[in-house]
Structures are given as C-alpha cells and as structure tokens.
Amino acid sequence: MRLLILFSSIFLFSCQKIPEDNVYTPPNTTKELKNIIYLNVDIDKALQKIPSIINQNYSQDQNLFEFKIKVKPENISKFIDCGTMNDEIYVNYINRIFDSSLEIKTLTELSAERDSYTKIEIISHYIFSSIETGAHLMLMPKDPSSLDGQSTDYTTGAPYVMFKGTPYVHLMIPMTGYYDYQPTAAPK
C-alpha cells in the first residue's frame, strides 16, 4: 500500500506543469498602413519615374514592379513588431538565440485614375525566419568556453554552436533528416 501511495505521489507531482520562465508580451497595437499614393501625373510619366524612385534591382511586368530587400539581423526590429520576450524586443531575442533573417518583398502597382492621376499601391510581404531544426545531438560542455572556436554556421551540415555567448551554449550535431524542417538552410 505504501508503495502504491509513493508511486502515485511521484506520478502526480512529476506530471505537474513546469512553471514558464519566459514571458511573452504581444505588440500593443496593430497599425494599418495606408499604402496608396496618388500622383498628379499620367501613368506613362509615372512608369518612367518609378525605377529611379525604387533605386533597387527590380522586375517589371507591365504596371507592376517587384523588388526585394534583405534586412540585416540587427535592424529587423525597425521593420516588424512581434512584441517582447522578458522585456526584450522579440525579434532581437530570437536573433540572439537562434539567428534570424528578414526579407521584404515589395510589389508596387500603378493604375490610371481620372483627371490624369496615377494611383500607386504598395504591398509589402515580410518573411521572417529563424533556425528550425530536425533530429540532432546536443553536447553541453562543462566549460562553455571550450566551444569558443567553433563555428555558428548551421548551413554546412557540420556540427555548429548554438546560443553562443550565453550560459546555454552547446554544440549541435545534425543527424539524418535534420534539414527536412528547413530545406533552405541545407548544405548546397
């Protein structure tokens, strides 16, 4: 009977939810951006001016321009607001721990309006990504400084360091299927 009570107690207490250390706070407000501009020029003149305004590599399909911007990790929080984690800007938190990237794909569409006006509509798609992994082994060293010389590049297929500069630094060793979750990071 004592054994039954002991095992029942262990089972009940071991299934308790572990208290969450991280506290996520969503963004305060959602701002709707009005991305429509009216120019007091006809569409033909506007089509001639857009390339110099964009000043990027772009593709054009009639009245639709498309260009992409890759944002440096340290500037991501200037473009998107994903809230905070433990009073740290969330995208900075993710970048510090997992490494991340942001690509902005912008479409600019021109259409003729009445009285020789041109309507310009700008639509941006934000693609935020960070490491997502499959099966791997993790080696947690007794002395974190022993990993100081190891690479953090997770795209080579070789072991790499994760959480560099934190007390949780460890060596990730990819296993078969590791890149199935994020094929874009797989070695070329």
Question: Explain this structure to me?
Answer:
- The protein has helices spanning 2-14, 43-54, 90-98; strands at 24-25, 36-39, 58-61, 64-71, 84-85, 88-89, 100-112, 118-130, 136-139, 160-162, 170-174.
- The protein has two domains: 21-130, TATA-Binding Protein (2-Layer Sandwich); 133-188, no CATH class.
- The chain has 188 residues and is of the alpha+beta class.
- The longest helix has 13 residues, at 2-14.
- Mean pLDDT is 77; it is low at 6-19.
- 11% of the residues are buried.
- The protein has a five-stranded antiparallel beta sheet. A three-stranded antiparallel beta sheet has the order 1-5-6.
- A hairpin with a 7-residue loop joins strand 10 (160-162) and strand 11.
- It contains three helices and eleven strands.
Question: What is the N-to-C succession of helices and strands?
Answer: HEEHEEEEHEEEEE
Distance between the termini: 61 Å
Provide the β-strand percentage band: 25-35%
Determine Rg (CA atoms, Å).
25 Å
If you consult CATH, what is the topology of the largest domain? Answer: TATA-Binding Protein
Domain count, please report it: 2
Q: What is the compact description of this entry?
A:
By secondary structure, this protein is an alpha+beta fold. The chain has helices at residues 2-14, 43-54, 90-98, and strands at 24-25, 36-39, 58-61, 64-71, 84-85, 88-89, 100-112, 118-130, 136-139, 160-162, 170-174.
List keywords for this structure.
alpha+beta; single chain; 3 helices; 188 residues; three-stranded antiparallel sheet; 2 domains
